[in-house]
Amino acid sequence: MNLRDISLGRHAPSIINVVIEAPKGSRKKYRYHAKSRKFRLAYEFSMPVPTEYGWIPQTVAEDGHFLNAMVIATNASHPGYVCEARPIGVLKRKDRDHHVICVMLGDERYTSVKDISDLDVNLLKKIVQFFEPYFELSGWLNHTETVEVIKKAHEVYLADPKVRSPEAEIDSDSGDDEGTEGFDEDLEETSTPEEDTEQADSGDQGETEDANSDN
Question: So what's the pLDDT on residue 182?
Fold first, then answer.
């Protein structure tokens, strides 16, 4: 499966799919190349990312790329992992490269977190500090506003399904891969929620019911 073909999510926008590019605690930001189905190292962060970091499929953000997502989770995953997450807020940037803040579906530590205001203040500070040295931030959006952001980004995608994020389209399969850190997409290790519905349903019946009531 090409990770570019993954849907927004079975219960979107209340529960969405997120493709992870940088695991929690990592300094390495990988980028997915759709043509070759490989992840390659794009750059390194100056500090470890405080959450899972990735993108939301079938969306086109204000800057023309996928919507970015930061998924709060107890444990780190790996690049290429596709998780189901509940969006709770948005961290806005002046350059419009906004970041949707989510919590990992099924993570018992964050079951009660429904809105960005429910998060621990120290965690919010860590997220802000991760971006603050490099980007001008412009505040937060709450859960209700975040759902509208996701809906709008999905509508833009649906208006032209061929729209592709420029950063995801870059593919250097012309023989210049030698010496470039990267790895093939590993579908056996990648969670694909739509094929493995037990991930969302086991122990998360309450959250799924909430999602259905939101749609």
Answer: 52
